Amino acid sequence: MGRTLLKYGVIAGLVAGGALLATMLAFQGQPPAGGYGMALGFASMLVALSAVFVGIRHHRDQAGGGVIRFWPAFGLGLGISLVAGLFYVAAWELCLVLRDQDFAAFFASSMVEGAKARGVEGADLARVVEEAASFEAMYRNPLVRMPMTFAEIFPVGVLVSLVSALVLRNPRVLPAR
What we know:
The chain contains seven helices and no strands. The protein has 177 residues and is mainly alpha-helical. The chain starts with a helix and ends in a 9-residue tail after the last helix. The chain has helices at 2-26, 36-48, 50-62, 70-98, 103-117, 122-139, 142-168.
């Protein structure tokens, strides 16, 4: 099971991390405008985490003789997602190194500019500025930034693992040939 976990985790991580790097390069270090960046990011995570389904199916068909119970399948999916998440974090850290800008400051100023565009003024704007400065200081700490980045992809992996384990525990779904 360990080999399957590592193999498919690395595949998922390389796809997710590669998509992150490609997006960063394609948009010259700026996130795509509007909700497109978030949609593109989650779509690439789902494509990458399809390796969870393939990995569970491979293990079921090769090691399990076509049968796998829910908890082992779910655990394998979580393990694959964990490895993929670590690769995703490494890719984001590489993006931060390759960028010639300070992402924390960029994001904090985006928070303030967004509030101004919505018409926030006075004490409410001061609160947004304070929150942005707090975020900027917090995000500079890698011990905070890395778990935040991991938390972007891992919940998606948990969901994909849950669905995959539920589907693949039935030996009639995509049976081995």
